[in-house]
Amino acid sequence: MVTAGPPRPTGALSHPPGSPAPHRGRRPARGGTASRARRAVPYLLIAPTVLALVAVLGYPLVDLVVLSFQDMTRRELFAGTSPPWAGVSQYRTVFTDAFFWEVVGRTALFTVVVSGVTMAGAMLIALLMRRVSPWVRLTMSGVLVAVWAMPVMVAASVFRWLVDADFGVVNWLLGQLPGVESARHNWFEDPWQGFAVIVAVVVWGALPFSAITLQAALTQVPPELEEAARVDGAERSQIFRHITFPVIKPAFVMVTTLTAIWNFGVFNQIWLMRSGQPEKDYYLLGVYSFIESFAVNRYSTGAAIAVITVLLLLVGAVVYVRQLVRMGEAE
Amino acid sequence: MSVDSRARRGSGRRRSLRADGLGLLFCAVMAFPLYWMLLTAFRPASEIRRNPPDFWASELTLEHFRRAVASETFWSSVRASVLVGVGTVVVSLVIGVLAAYAVARFAFAGRRAFVLVILSVQMIPLAGLIIPLYLLLSDAGLTDSLTGVVLTYLVFMLPFTVWLLRGFIAAIPVELEEAAMVDGCTRAGAFRRVLLPLLAPGLVATSIYSLVQAWNEYVLAYVLLSSNDKQTVSIWLVSFQTSFGTDYGALMAGATLTALPVVVFFLFVQRRVAAGLAAGAVKG
């Protein structure tokens, strides 16, 4: 009865890669046109998706690369003529520009800081949620979901109000600390402080997804194992390092990669916090590429920066997809 | 021994009390921005600008909401957002469910490659594609049109829709469809009469999630839509921010209005989508 296949509550996930789906075993393929037609069915089913992706994603991606080897200005855009070829000169301009490297460094630092803070915070919250009473856990989940649902626009507006120079509640709170003079303090004057606010918005918005996912992963940790280690006299940090963490590691890697990828492409929060006119100190790669294209009208330079950004992100994407494949998710 | 266990239980209770305290503190910090938004939106203007700030409102008012709704583009932006959201959801759902069905139920050459593409595509940052998308749509004469926005939203909705629906379909026992086919149903019939009804919760969850994403999207809509009457809610909120300057009462009322439908919808689907987002990392 092997051919019938076991009942599969999680569906196609549970059978090993490469093995045929069970229903095929049950209905042996007949020769001739009927089976050829049947073989075409899945391709017909994915055809619309493939077509749509090629049209709205594949074509623009290719166009982006082509554009980065040309020199497109406003004139070509409005005349509809094809822009002149420029070879690698856009890339040369970008790579020899010290400011570009500054932006790359800032983006990398931003990604590391936000992802680090988010993941550390999410891990602590997820661990804490295992120890609290049920009603506190319910409250925590409720708050997390409410925050998760907040649109980025709304979050940015609210945080701007919180750090408002004149009547912001953050300035007032800091002023309560002994020796801190914070009245009328403008948070965006110094880019380090401005970025502290931006990091706070991004982390605030990213914590819920990470914490909820890690918390769900923690429920997979067998309590007997932790109990046994405790009986054997293991420290709490040892239990976490050697028992708890290895179980949730796949989920942890996945969430970290996703968070890092999202943070690397952050645009909205900066754009909104700076009212659509970010100072140069606030440029990250996404903002830089956008401004080069749509504010300065150097579309090709913007395209070159975008290509570089996508290539850098591919590194993250490879880690993410490999993790999925290793977990048998991508089959 | 009983002394020992009692001591342990005591320390356990103390520990969980401390954990509860920490948990509540965390809730307070996390929820404070939301509380402050609502408080600012509902309290009279005279109480908003006050130093030191009051953490409780003496009276509630709807004047800020009235001002926000009266701003000229509010209703047209709601209309545009709903149209874009519904359009995106319908298109991505109709073509996404077919692909998801193929991936979940058929073994075919290229399936693995298709899945890998679907997964990697989600990683491409939207900001990187704005320029070519803009050029593509301006060639097609679809800038400043809601159709154009719907088309571009497909870029990031479709892969996710396929991935999420694939999970939902895989969770439905294939034996049900097989039984229907043994009883004389065609494959298409089994899909329509057996699978689709069972998939309804998954379809609802996926479409609500896409709807929320479309409602929240900002950059593409900002670049593509120039007419006032076609701007979406997120653009409305941002322009509101610049035009009202520091009228924080109206701004927070606008923020509340923008967030409200999203929060309500999100509460329904959060559980199902969380698992899909983590791509089954937490299945069980």
From TrEMBL, chain A:
Residues 1-34 are annotated as: Disordered. CDD domains: TM_PBP2. It is found in: Cell membrane. GO terms for biological process: transmembrane transport. One of its GO terms (cellular component) is plasma membrane. Keywords: Cell membrane, Membrane, Transmembrane, Transmembrane helix, Transport. It holds the Pfam family BPD_transp_1. Residues 104-320 form the ABC transmembrane type-1 domain. The chain crosses the membrane at residues 40-62, 108-129, 141-163, 192-214, 251-272, 299-321. It is a multi-pass membrane protein. InterPro entries: MetI-like, MetI-like_sf, UgpAE/MalFG_permease. Belongs to the binding-protein-dependent transport system permease family. This is Sugar ABC transporter permease. It comes from Streptomyces jumonjinensis.
